[in-house]
Design a protein that fits this description.
It is built from 21 helices and four strands. With 658 residues, the chain is mainly α. The protein folds into two domains: 317 residues, no CATH class; 146 residues. A four-stranded antiparallel β-sheet has the order 2-3-1-4, covered by helices on one side.
Length: 658
């Protein structure tokens, strides 16, 4: 008996080390966070929004006009010449793909490393990723010239029974960028589902209630939902981590697998990845600092967030600077006169101005962040982030144009001069980006509501030492005529109260009961005895299936349907097929994680009896609920009511039949 008492008394103090201090300023609560973030969507647009949207749509129209002119006239309207066959088109493509790297980095890699500061900025960065990839996709699409023949890139035979060359880095690009865009969109949408449920429950018009209801798929914040949801989210993060590294690696292969001096180098894959992260974080800061000021969420995105991001910017900037130096060292050490000439020409040739803009913006400028006082000045950081973006665009320009404009024969040297079409499409791509971004902040929360709430101390089920006292004097909700009661629903004041109530329900013999919360309560699944999610095996099977399908399909094409020897490689060579096999594996796994999560959660389900209770509209705001019903054979309405009230349950109500 003494040991039992000691164990009982020691249990509340054991998790004391789990108490977390919020990374936000002030004293935010679940309700205040919901109100602050949702207000951006629910209130009329700010006075600056319409002028900004008008300017962005005009730039988008300019891009569309230039693209239409190019398609109807030909790519000769660009400033391309011989030998500069690539210029603004591929420069802009690589630039926008790099911009999109920060979203997946923040969402996936920082999630796996349990970096809590990501929670306030991940939604922002994820949206930026998708819009940047959309901008990037414009340029190779137009660059093919005959845009109506772009389906030749798809992994199917074209009208002449000719299959794409799966061994080409350009086709690897198609798979890498499309997979990246798809997985990033899935990641983004999965994160939005609980927040769409919050907007659904707060909607004041039928149209908004219907729209957000459809998008939320009937999300209820069930503990069983959160179990599969967090598993899917972690799996997507694990899948996206190698994906984000592979995308710009594959993009670098467009250059590194060639024999052009200045391109044919093994340093390109890590160099491109570091540069992508560098430019991506620069764009996140460029967008986030004005939005932080305009929407007044300095308490959610604090100076500490800016400090962390400046440190990442400084570190990746030094990696990029190291890569610049190693390029010169490699050219010198190789004793190859063509390589040496290419790099000397970059720094001292006709495009010297572009090279030194690149070095100044990317290497020298970020070094100011060694000083902590400068990392806490938002508008100074904003200016540096713009310079970083300028420098990273010039980096891609320098790599592409300066390696091409002087080839092996001096008689074929040329100089690239962009035309108005080049400039119009480049500037217009920003119009597309900002148009999508401005629409996004009007229809969806730009900060992840439920993830920010997990940073609050009360999100820890062990944080509250004194449980809420039992309810006294509340009306008896049970029918007086003794009619059948299919179930009961009770509201709790905190995550710790709900956690304790679930433990009592499990101890009382309940196995099929459910709990609802506005954010995942870690440890609640164990208190309820839910076990582990069945999602990982499903994802594993899907990933292996995707890998086998891609490998067998390409081998069949290369050896049977359309035998093709590329660069002397035998028909059955597997090595050049690995990039596409990898991308398809990630794609199948990501779809399995998302669709499997929805299937295990029984979603979409737009009708559920808990939705019929008015008090349940607080479930995705600051409400915590426990449901006991007749799915458990031990259910007794009177005993269930007693259990709920003794554990601090309030507003107990009778559920309708299923």
């Amino acid at each position: 008996m003494t040991q039992a008492v000691v164990t009982h008394e020691a249990e509340p103090t054991r998790p004391e080390t789990l108490e977390r201090q919020p990374i936000m300023t002030g004293t935010p609560t679940c309700a205040s966070i919901t109100e602050q973030v949702c207000a951006i969507v629910e209130r009329p647009a700010s006075a600056w929004w319409m002028p900004a949207f008008s300017v962005s749509t005009l730039l988008l129209a300019l891009c569309g006009f230039a693209a239409l002119y190019l398609i109807t006239t030909g790519v000769g309207v660009w400033g391309l010449n011989s030998p500069v066959g690539w210029a603004f088109d591929i420069t802009n493509f690589v630039f926008w793909v790099g911009i999109g790297h920060a979203g997946t980095l923040i969402s996936a890699i920082l999630l796996l490393f349990r970096q809590r500061w990501r929670n306030s900025i991940n939604r922002f960065a994820e949206a930026m990723t998708i819009f940047a990839v959309a901008c990037a996709g414009l340029f190779p699409l137009i660059h093919v010239g005959r845009i109506w023949m772009v389906w030749f890139l798809a992994p199917v035979p074209n009208a002449n029974a000719i299959w794409p060359n799966f061994r080409s880095p350009l086709l690897w690009d198609v798979f890498a960028v499309s997979t990246y865009a798809t997985v990033s969109t899935l990641f983004w949408f999965v994160g939005l589902v609980p927040d769409f449920a919050t907007l659904r429950d707060r909607a004041t018009t039928p149209l908004k209630r219907w729209s957000y209801g459809i998008l939320s798929l009937g999300w209820r914040g069930s503990a069983r939902h959160w179990l599969n949801y967090e598993t899917a989210y972690l799996l997507l993060a694990g899948l996206s981590t190698p994906l984000v590294l592979s995308v710009h690696t594959v993009v670098s292969f467009d250059f590194a697998t060639s024999v052009i001096p200045g391109w044919h180098t093994t340093i390109f894959p890590p160099y491109f990845v570091a540069g992508a992260i560098f430019s991506g974080f620069g764009m996140v800061l460029t967008l986030m600092i004005p939005a932080r000021q305009l929407f007044h969420f300095e308490n959610l995105v604090t100076d500490r967030h800016l400090d962390f991001m400046c440190q990442v910017l400084m570190a990746t900037g030094m990696i990029v600077g190291y890569a610049y130096a190693m390029e010169f060292f490699t050219a010198w050490y190789s004793a190859n006169p063509y390589e040496q000439f290419t790099f000397i020409n970059r720094a001292l040739g006709p495009y010297w101005w572009a090279y030194w803009i690149m070095v100044s913006c990317n290497v020298l400028t970020p070094q100011v962040f060694w000083f902590k006082s400068l990392r806490n000045r938002p508008w100074f950081i904003f200016g540096i982030s713009i310079l970083v973006n300028v420098g990273m665009w010039f980096e891609r320009f320098v790599i592409i144009v300066t390696s091409l404009h002087r080839d092996f024969l001096p008689s074929s040297w040329g100089y690239f001069i962009p035309t108005w079409v080049d400039f119009a499409q480049f500037i217009g791509s920003f119009g597309l980006f900002f148009t999508l971004f401005l629409l996004f902040i009007r229809v969806a929360p730009m900060i992840t509501i439920f993830e920010v709430k997990t940073l609050l101390p009360e999100a820890d089920p062990h944080s509250q030492r004194e449980p809420t006292p039992p309810v006294e004097g509340e009306a008896d909700p049970l029918p007086t005529d003794g009619s059948f009661v299919p179930g009961l629903l009770a509201r709790y004041e905190s995550a710790s109260d709900l956690y304790a109530a679930c433990k009592k329900a499990k101890a009382a013999g309940y196995k099929h009961f459910d709990a609802y919360s506005p954010f995942p309560i870690h440890g609640l699944e164990k208190a309820m005895g839910l076990g582990k999610s069945k999602l990982p095996p499903m994802v594993l099977v899907a990933g292996v299936s995707g890998a086998l399908l891609a490998l067998v399909g390409m081998l069949w094409v290369n050896t049977v349907e359309y035998p093709l020897i590329t660069a002397g490689k035998p028909y059955g060579a597997i090595e050049p097929l690995i990039p596409i096999v990898f991308e398809v594996t990630i794609l199948f796994s990501a779809f399995a994680a998302v669709l499997g999560m929805f299937a295990l959660n029984g979603l979409p389900r737009y009708h559920h009896r808990v939705f019929e209770k008015e008090i349940f509209k607080r479930s995705m705001d600051d409400g915590f609920f426990l449901m006991l019903d007749t799915r458990d054979h031990c259910f007794d309405a009177r005993e269930a009511l007693k259990l709920m009230r003794e554990s601090g349950g309030r507003d107990v109500c009778v559920l309708d039949r299923k």
